[in-house]
Amino acid sequence: MADERARSRRAAGPPGLRTAAVHGALDAFAARRSAELGRPLRVLDLGGGTGGTAVPLAVAGHDVTVVDPSPDALASLRRRAAETDTSQRIHPVQGDTDTLGELAAGGEPAAYDLVCLHGTLEVVDDPDAAMAGIATVLAPGGTLSLVVAQRLPAALARALAGQFARAQAILERPDGRWGDDDPAPRRFDENVVLDLLRTHGFTPVDSHGVRIFSDLVPSALVDSEADRAALLELEEVASRHLDHPLLGGLGSVRHVLATRG
């Protein structure tokens, strides 16, 4: 079994700089929670696409249901699952947050230990409804892993590009967009995200900014494994530095882990 998982990890490949910090935190949590329960986790990955989150979790031995509206993405997911020998642990389902109720079997709510909502809350029609639906499919003591785009770094990036009106709009508009031509449907502030979670009965247990530097450093400056490791270590220190808590607000995205009852 250990040899099979090692081969699967090699096939899955290392996470990219943009996702490594989230994957690291998620993998550590999943391993810890699995040890507490004495079994692999039942995971629901909403908007999981081609399996960037699901495949590493399945390689680690967890059972992952991936819900995504795109049949092309799910086809790619099936190929990745086959390449990593995880097809038996990955279950693709076409749908979205509005179809969560269909995951229930026999009229009973599905009971997942972990729900991943990474880069999806920004694009759903109704974030409140999405959170309410997620709450119904989590097992008692279950955890939500939420990754959302942040407002402040987007405004900073527009200002540095000389797009001052767009930067101001991002700061002032409730949805954090610069206008109708902004490709991002929604951006969040940390307090708004935490309030939304609490409204739906979640208790945030960890919240930190991600990609504080990774989106700014030119790729030419990260051309070795040593450079990559050093940048990731810098990201980890900056996102959790007790003396400089505002650094987390500069991360392109925020990663929150929250439990429910």
From TrEMBL:
The keyword Transferase applies. Keywords: Methyltransferase, S-adenosyl-L-methionine, Transferase. GO terms for molecular function: methyltransferase activity. It comes from the Bacteria. The keyword Plastid does not apply. Signal peptide: none annotated. InterPro entries: SAM-dependent_MTases_sf. GO terms for biological process: methylation. This is Methyltransferase.
